[in-house]
């Protein structure tokens, strides 16, 4: 499935040739399509224990190097597994971007339901643990990336609300968005994942086992990692438990919660016009997340 007009579509044969040429220690392993990737990577299984991440588009071309630089640091502080690269490959064989080989992490994303109470609490602990990681030298969020002041996204969100038409309750979304803008700015800048949607979470036997796809990580407003409160189908008690765990120790928990709601709207509403025809399932999920941010 091609999501972007300028997307580079990788194939198992391309991955096999790149591995043979650049990572010969794994040349004998079978390459086969992996799970469906997100908006910026194609994924391929390499043997039974490895995964190859192939950027689809130019905006993801620096992810491999960033992952290799920062994920080992983050992994040392987190209570779940994360896929720190084992190798970074260079452009070649007609492929224009750097790519990476990472460990295959066991677990399944909560595609059709929630995580459950225990795993949701685990996720809150991951969010809180990220704030304990030293930020010295870390990549500070810039421009309109997730974790900057919400006001920088105001024009984009309002334009997306208009473009979404009757796919959302525009007036209600606008009201919640303006409430998020009115919240006090972040009292601290911390490490954050930046994209804690269900597809980037792995669970097994009722517990969270891993968090993947760290392409949006950086140092910024920790409220950006509160989006699971509206991005997952949580019962009221689970949402309250996540809120208590994920905001523990924040200097501004109430304002952070409102900004987190705003960050959910940023991801949900901006995605709708772009992905409505390109990736209908993702667009419909974004609809539901926008509605959850309004209702809860």
TrEMBL record:
Segments forming domain Aminoglycoside phosphotransferase: 36-263
PANTHER family: AMINOGLYCOSIDE PHOSPHOTRANSFERASE-RELATED-RELATED (PTHR21310), BIFUNCTIONAL AAC_APH (PTHR21310:SF42)
Organism this protein belongs to: Promicromonospora sukumoe
Keyword Mitochondrion: no
Keywords: Kinase, Transferase
The protein's name: Aminoglycoside phosphotransferase (APT) family kinase protein
GO molecular function, one term: kinase activity
Cross-referenced Pfam families: APH
Xref: CDD domains: APH_ChoK_like_1 (cd05155)
């Amino acid at each position: 499935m091609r999501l972007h007009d300028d997307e580079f579509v990788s194939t198992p044969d391309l991955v096999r040739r790149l591995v043979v040429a650049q990572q010969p220690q794994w040349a004998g392993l079978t390459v086969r399509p992996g799970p469906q990737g997100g908006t910026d990577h194609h994924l391929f299984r390499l043997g039974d224990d490895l995964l190859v991440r192939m950027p689809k588009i130019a905006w993801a071309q620096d992810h491999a190097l960033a992952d290799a630089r920062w994920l080992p640091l983050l992994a040392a502080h987190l209570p779940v597994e994360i896929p720190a690269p084992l190798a970074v490959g260079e452009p070649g064989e007609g492929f224009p971007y750097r790519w990476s080989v990472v460990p295959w992490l066991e677990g399944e994303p909560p595609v059709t339901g929630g995580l459950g109470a225990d795993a949701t609490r685990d996720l809150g602990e991951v969010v809180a643990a990220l704030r304990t990681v030293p930020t010295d030298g870390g990549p500070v969020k810039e421009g309109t990336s997730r974790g900057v002041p919400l006001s920088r996204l105001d024009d984009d969100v309002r334009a997306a609300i208009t473009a979404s038409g009757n796919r959302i309750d525009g007036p209600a979304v606008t009201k919640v968005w303006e409430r998020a803008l009115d919240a006090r700015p972040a009292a601290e800048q911390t490490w954050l994942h930046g994209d804690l949607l269900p597809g980037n979470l792995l669970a097994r036997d009722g517990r969270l086992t891993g968090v993947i796809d760290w392409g949006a990580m950086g140092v910024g407003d920790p409220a950006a990692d509160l989006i699971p409160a509206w991005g997952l189908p949580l019962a009221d008690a689970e949402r309250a438990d996540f809120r208590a765990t994920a905001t523990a120790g924040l200097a501004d928990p109430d304002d952070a919660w409102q900004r987190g709601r705003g960050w959910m709207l940023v991801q949900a509403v901006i995605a709708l016009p772009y992905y409505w025809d390109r990736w209908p399932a993702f667009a419909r999920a974004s609809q539901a997340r926008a509605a959850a941010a309004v209702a809860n």
